Amino acid sequence: MFRRLSQLKCRCKAELDRSANRSSDLRWRGVFLRCQAAATSKRWREMMTATQPELTLFHTPGACSRVTLNALEELGLAFDDRPVDIFKGAQFSPDYRAVNPKAKVPALVVGGELLTETPAIILWLTERVPGETLLPGPTPLARAQAFADLVWCSNTLHPLARTIRMPNRATTGDPAPVREAAIAAMTPLLASIDARLAQQPWWFGDRWSIVDVYLSWVLGMCEGGVDTSQFPALVAHRDAVRARPSFERALERETRALAAARIELPGGGRL
């Protein structure tokens, strides 16, 4: 097909070079541009197929890396996943530090290049797969506002939720007061989220987004420390997130990873 397109482009160019008639010139110019667009489009698709980066996600079942795992499943991208038992300190092993010197999950390896931090990974994925699949935003400002909410989940809700579930990681002393302080700080935040979700099915209204997955994970981490029954809309929202096909596929991967790596969730937690 490229040969035929190239031949037709050459003829168009020759006609344009010879043409002294404006209408004829415009006609051949239009044919030339259409051929060029078709050839470029096909070449782009073939190039993307040939050079599509290999994706490998390092994650821990039940951890915040679930957000990235769900995003990959939602987009339908092919990827490998490698479990890392952060509950036993595997993230500090020389082997894993060789992959991610930050000693954290998630870590996404893209064609040999490392990408870390959930918001950064989600940002790359939204650019890798055009559209509004993971985050809404018909305008640059709207996209930035949606991304700001994702960052809020990461830098405000996430640390509090982690401290509620694993307060010993936040102190070398008595973890009880640390946990209580985190619960006190988190409770009004959950109340505000619950009030918003009582008015609409998803965080951004009628459209699911990856922020919904993050909120679902945060609520799960708070269970056992916060009385979640006081937030019925948030609980219903969590159940709706977990019922989506992409979440179910992510959960299947986590379940397999638990068995393969013999990972035990702390405190008898569940996925």
Automatic annotation (TrEMBL):
The keyword Transferase applies. Keywords: Transferase. Residues 139-267 form the GST C-terminal domain. Gene3D superfamilies: 1.20.1050.10, Glutaredoxin. Residues 52-133 form the GST N-terminal domain. The keyword Transferase applies. One of its GO terms (molecular function) is transferase activity. It holds the Pfam family GST_C_2. This is Glutathione S-transferase family protein. The lineage of its organism: Bacteria, Pseudomonadati, Pseudomonadota, Alphaproteobacteria, Sphingomonadales.
